[in-house]
Design goal:
This protein has helices at residues 9-22, 25-35, 40-68, 78-107, 113-122, 126-155, 163-175, 182-202, 205-227. The longest helix has 30 residues, at 78-107. The protein is mainly alpha-helical. 31% of the residues are buried. It contains 9 helices and no strands. The radius of gyration is 18 Å and the shape is globular.
Length: 228
């Protein structure tokens, strides 16, 4: 799609801002589910709203992504795709371990504020735990990749841009996660930047969705292991 066919810069910013706000709504709904756990009918309604909101986010982000996509997926064999996913996860693992050590040495924190909030919310209610577990491995990777890679990276740069969209994607991704110090921000920036790099190199957002899902699954299993 040519530059003349794209909306104005302010419209692109507003769309991005709206999606970034919308993706913060599901966690708020989970708080209401926890608060109304003793009322099954209310819980059922809230779960329905939760599903509808996530569905709306994914539908809208996908439509925008497909309409303004700059880079087409490169051809990949199964082993090549597996290599990107596994290699990306190892890169994330090594980088996060280093940053977590720095976070502990400098700020004496063993986990980020975002992870603490997730653990507290999941441990408060079994229904919330089930919903959050499903969202972490399925819904969040799809929605967040469509927004922070699919939309953000295709909106604001030229077709030959490489590092600029990766950096912007990482910055916006870290702003969506609760952090209390610069190292915590760097952890999420690094995570978002790795996702963005793989998307930019392959043009295939399914790669980052699967990597994101696998990374969340490993983190989820570790979290659940500490709760039992």
């Amino acid at each position: 799609m040519t530059k003349s066919q794209r909306p104005s810069w302010i419209v692109l910013v507003l769309i991005t801002f709206a999606l970034a706000i919308l993706i913060q709504v599901p966690p708020v709904i989970l708080l209401f589910i926890r608060r109304n756990a003793a009322t099954p009918s209310m819980v059922a309604i809230l779960i329905l709203i939760y599903a509808v909101v996530f569905g709306l986010i994914i539908w809208w982000a996908y439509r925008v992504f497909i309409k303004y996509r700059r880079w087409q997926p490169t051809r990949q064999t199964f082993l090549q795709r597996l290599g990107w996913i596994f290699g990306g996860w190892l890169t994330i693992l090594l980088g996060e371990q280093l940053l977590n050590v720095l976070n502990y040495v400098i700020y004496h924190q063993t986990e980020t504020a975002n992870n603490q909030a997730i653990g507290q919310l999941m441990g408060s209610n079994h229904i919330v735990m089930i919903i959050m577990s499903f969202a972490a491995v399925v819904l969040n990777p799809i929605a967040e990749e469509l927004i922070f890679r699919g939309v953000v990276m295709n909106f604001f740069f030229k077709d030959n841009s490489f590092w600029a969209p990766i950096i912007l994607s990482g910055v916006l991704f870290t702003l969506e996660h609760s952090s209390t110090n610069i190292i915590s921000y760097l952890i999420y920036f690094y995570l978002g930047a790795v996702f963005a790099y793989i998307y930019r190199k392959t043009g295939n957002i399914a790669n980052t969705m699967m990597l994101h899902a696998f990374n969340n699954l490993v983190a989820l299993m570790a979290l659940l292991g500490t709760m039992h």
